Amino acid sequence: MPPLTVSDFPSAAGLVRAQWAPVLLRPILGSPEQLVIGVAVANSTAFHLERANRLDRLHCLFSNDAEAAILAAQASLEALASDLVSRAANALVEFEPVFSSVSIGELHEGEGPSLESIASSWMMALSSLYTATPDTEAQLVTSAVAIDVLERGPPADRLPTLIMEYVSRKRPGLTEFFNETIRQNMSARRGNVSRVIIDYAGSHLVANFGTLSVASHAASVDRIKRRLWDLKVARDLERGQLVDRLHELFVQHPAETDPQFTVRQLDRISESIETLKDQARQEEIEFSPLHTVSQIGEIVLQREAV
């Protein structure tokens, strides 16, 4: 086998670095529930704002009341675009909302072949109000970074697989109730991002699982919010039918006494747990924050033993 050379490794030539942040909408005033309506990307020389192009999906959730949320989203995105023209990256750091229901999320560092591809790939990964156009798909698949996003989505959470393995050891018959992507140990592909995804749908329990991470905290919170959103949609679709199942979100997080993390990091986890708990209560979804796979697995077994 010939020796490896520098040319055998992926090149970062031609990639641009920038800061990006999600644009967040709270459609219900006073509620912590948030939706990603855009991703803004900026560096010292340029900027790009990728907007949600499926705001019409809000009608499915809020009926006639969706118009106010859509108006707030569109007006805020227009104002942010104008502010980016004037102040570039400073518009993200010092965001001035037109409506109190719209805010800027945490800033992140990003890299890609263009600002547009960075924004599009993150919108595809984070927003249920966005669908890539053929032009966007064509642009994204020209880079290794974009191909990775298209094929794998955001970093996979191993928790659903670990829960399945734990439950299956004690009750093998429950394995079939886990999502096919979990049973086959696959990451959800891009085509699944815009539809409702449920990790477990049993006889008495419908559940999603999420890990609240310290290292990539903001991204893990976004994933968990999406898992909650999917449960809400699934629960609403099930109402009025003969079946009456509990819909529950399980979140694994470090213990408050875990010595691996600082007090500040653990406080941040606790704050996120309280916010997610409030949001789940608002949506009438059962919320169970626990520390270990075995704790979650045992509750799943108990729910199905009813």
Question: Which helices and strands, and how do they pair?
Answer:
Layout: E1 16-25, E2 35-42, E3 47-51, H1 58-62, H2 66-87, H3 90-93, E4 102-104, E5 108-112, H4 115-126, H5 134-140, H6 144-152, H7 159-170, H8 180-183, E6 200-201, E7 205-211, H9 217-238, E8 246-252, H10 263-282, E9 286-290, H11 293-304
Helix pairs in contact: 7-11, 9-10
General description of the model:
With 306 residues, the protein is an alpha+beta fold. It folds into 2 domains: 16-152, no CATH class; 159-304, 3-Layer(aba) Sandwich (Rossmann fold). It is built from 11 helices and 9 strands. Strands 1, 2, 3, 4 and 5 form a 5-stranded antiparallel beta sheet that branches. β2 (35-42) and β3 form a beta hairpin. The protein is globular and about 60 Å long. The model is unreliable at 1-13, 141-155 and 187-194 (pLDDT under 50).
Number of helices in the DSSP assignment:
11
How many DSSP-defined strands?
9
CATH class of the largest domain: Alpha Beta
User: Which regions contain 5 or more consecutive residues with pLDDT less than 50?
Assistant: 1-13, 141-155, 187-194
For the record, give the distance between the C-alpha atoms at the N and C termini, rounded to a whole number. 59 Å
Task: Give the helix/strand class.
Answer: alpha+beta
Counting structural domains, the number is 2
- β-strand percent reads 15-25%
Largest sheet: number of strands, sense, barrel closure? 5 strands, antiparallel
Mean pLDDT level: 79
Please tell me how large the radius of gyration is.
21 Å
Globally, the shape reads globular
Encode the helix/strand succession as letters: EEEHHHEEHHHHHEEHEHEH
CATH architecture of the largest domain: 3-Layer(aba) Sandwich
Helix content: 40-55%
Give me the CATH fold name of the largest domain. Answer: Rossmann fold
